[in-house]
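Incident log, support desk, overnight shift.

02:14 A customer reports that sequence design results differ from what the structure should imply. Their input is reproduced verbatim below. On-call engineer (initials T.W.) acknowledged and began investigating.
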């Protein structure tokens, strides 16, 4: 690991922490960082030893979104790459975050804008530092939402509020973000990393196979009817009822001891 790495990876207690590492550029997203992040997320999703993931940023920002300097430079050079980055990078990143069969926590350590904010919205849990804020900045640069923000944001705060935040491109401070339901809690800046890891480690020690099914069922329910949700719940319970983790939980309850979950 060197100081030139644009993405840092650390493992502890079954938790993999991915840190966007371009602090001087507010962790804005270059092609290199997007490709590294996508690879790292896919690796974390597939690795059995990784039972929870934390996504955070280095320095004073979580992620400022697209690196506009690189974007403009490529456009001026006639490079078509910027026009395909939604399809090639942002969409796969968000699909991987949202579809990962294990919990993902966004530890929002500072400003989160554009695609950076959308990555946090796609996570299962969001914890914010007091200095954090959120900005749907797309309209400011003459673009529409990407990275799934049109889907995730309105499911967190409702259609009307999502429209307001996107059309007005208004910055939402951390405490307001908590009131709106964008984040579950706000902690002092210096406590964020420890708090995020504590929650992630607790999840990592839990029944991760159950967490994967919970995510699947919530996804079905968010897009479908009550009947769709009922069928998805039934299918999930049928699978989970035969898992080792379920048997362990029941036996531990009867024996009045703490269960030892294996994610199986």
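02:41 Re-run completed on a clean worker. Output:
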């Amino acid at each position: 690991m060197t100081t030139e790495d644009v993405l840092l990876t650390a493992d502890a207690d079954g938790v993999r922490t991915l840190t966007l590492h371009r602090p001087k550029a507010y962790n804005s997203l270059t092609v290199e960082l997007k490709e590294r992040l996508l690879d790292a997320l896919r690796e974390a999703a597939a690795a059995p030893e990784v039972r929870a993931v934390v996504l955070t940023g280095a320095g004073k920002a979580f992620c400022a979104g697209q690196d506009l300097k690189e974007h403009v430079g490529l456009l001026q050079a006639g490079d078509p790459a910027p026009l395909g980055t939604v399809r090639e990078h942002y969409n796969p990143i968000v699909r991987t975050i949202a579809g990962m069969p294990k919990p993902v926590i966004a530890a929002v350590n500072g400003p989160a804008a554009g695609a950076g904010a959308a990555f946090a919205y796609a996570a299962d849990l969001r914890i914010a530092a007091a200095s954090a804020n959120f900005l749907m900045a797309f309209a400011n640069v003459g673009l529409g939402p990407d990275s799934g923000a049109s889907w995730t944001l309105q499911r967190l705060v409702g259609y009307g509020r999502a429209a307001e935040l996107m059309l007005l491109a208004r910055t939402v401070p951390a405490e307001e973000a908590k009131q709106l339901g964008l984040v579950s809690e706000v902690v002092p800046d210096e406590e964020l990393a420890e708090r995020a890891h504590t929650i992630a480690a607790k999840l990592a020690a839990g029944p991760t196979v159950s967490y994967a099914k919970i995510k699947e069922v919530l996804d079905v329910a968010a897009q479908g009817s009550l009947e769709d949700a009922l069928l998805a719940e039934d299918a999930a319970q049928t699978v989970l009822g035969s898992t080792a983790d379920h048997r362990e939980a029941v036996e531990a309850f009867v024996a009045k001891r703490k269960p030892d979950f294996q994610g199986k």
